[in-house]
Amino acid sequence: MPKMKTRKAAAKRFKETGTGKFVHNCAYGRHILTKKSAKRKRRLGQTAGVKSSEIRRLKASLPYGL
């Protein structure tokens, strides 16, 4: 059976932590920052965890892990 292909878009956007959870960068933190509060901009700069409902789809996209 041939090897499964990794979805490169997912590989670039997600990272696996040491405990096996997945994290991603937050959206909306790149431009049009003048109207956003300092608190909101700080939080957008941090990584966020992937929802538990999306984990199965993500693992299928990354068959050999990261």
Question: How are the elements arranged and paired?
Answer:
Layout: H1 8-13, E1 14-16, E2 22-25, H2 38-44, E3 47-49, H3 55-61
Antiparallel strand pairs: 1-2, 2-3
CATH architecture: Irregular
Classify the fold: give the CATH topology: Factor Xa Inhibitor
The number of distinct β-strands equals: 3
Please mark out the parts with pLDDT under 50 across 5 or more consecutive residues, or reply none.
none
Helix segment tally:
3
Name the shape in a single word.
Answer: elongated
Helix-residue proportion: 25-40%
Average residue pLDDT: 95
Account of the 3D structure:
The chain is α+β, with helices and mostly antiparallel strands. Helices cover 30% and strands 15% of the residues. The protein has helices at 8-13, 38-44, 55-61; strands at 14-16, 22-25, 47-49. The protein has a 3-stranded antiparallel β-sheet. The chain is elongated, with a radius of gyration of 15 Å.
Primary descriptors:
Factor Xa Inhibitor, 3 helices, 66 residues, three-stranded antiparallel beta sheet
Question: What does this entry show, briefly?
Answer:
With 66 residues, the chain is an alpha+beta fold. The protein is 30% helix and 15% strand.
